[in-house]
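Our working data are protein records whose layout never changes between entries. Instead of coordinates, the fold is spelled out as a row of discrete tokens. Here is such a record, shown just as it appears in the course material:
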Amino acid sequence: MEARHLRYALALAEHEHFGRAAAALGIAQPPLSKQIADLEREVGARLFERTRQGVFPTAAGEAFLARARRALDEMAAAVSDAGRAARGETGRLRLGFIASALLDPLPGVLHRFGRERPDVRLELHEMASSRSSAALIAGELDVAITLGPPRGAGAERLVSVPIGHDYLVAVVSTAHPLAGRPEVRVEQLRRQRLIVAASEDEPAVSAGLRALLGRDSPALAGATVARDVHTIVGLAASGVGVGLGPSRMLAAPRQGTWFCEVVPRTPLPDLVLSFAARDTSPVLTAFLDTIRRNCPTVGAALDHRLRAAAPPSE
């Protein structure tokens, strides 16, 4: 039994006449009569009464047609669902990210992706770069946004592209002596109470601060350790000390704080988007397309890395 047999039976029930049903289906009447007869033999019951007034479903026919309608509806839904999945309109995306990515560019990307793909289930996990890198390599995430590219065994199987560049800035409360100044020099920072990110969460940033202020810097040794950039800003606003973090913090000013550039300007590790080179899922493809459109400077670099990661054509 094929789907066309179900359509033939439904058309005949609707038009109550072999000729009219055949015309509606775009076939000749004899083939339709034969197909209905073959269907009745396969079902093992007479589905239609042929009378001078027309062709009408029997009790068995009514039961069969009810199921046939549902079966065709399910088949149409299956085709629709398959198409939506192939276009990345349904499915799941597991994204791990560092907190500072929520300052930029994640809000715009997530808003646009959620608006355009409302039926994709987003699983969002805020975590340190080292943890999200390990989870991505282990296949527990589909995408990771980290400070610097993932490293370690398995990282060579990932595609990584920078999506943001940062430099070091300082943040203080408006009551702090540095408030109102456009910049603060490294020499001045060595004499301040500092607020920094946890070294185990962002080791690349911690290494950069040690290189900048001195490996045995008393200021670093006595620094207040914060979980993320939001905590750094909050503690600075509370007058705890001078917060040091990425320039991305400038995208979310907070009342009662003042930002200073650190002189000399100190670059921080890039914000990097990574995913498995072998992952060709439509949902990931759709997410990367959103990244391209929301972060125009990323597109060329992303396409270049995808081409480099593609297997050679035979």
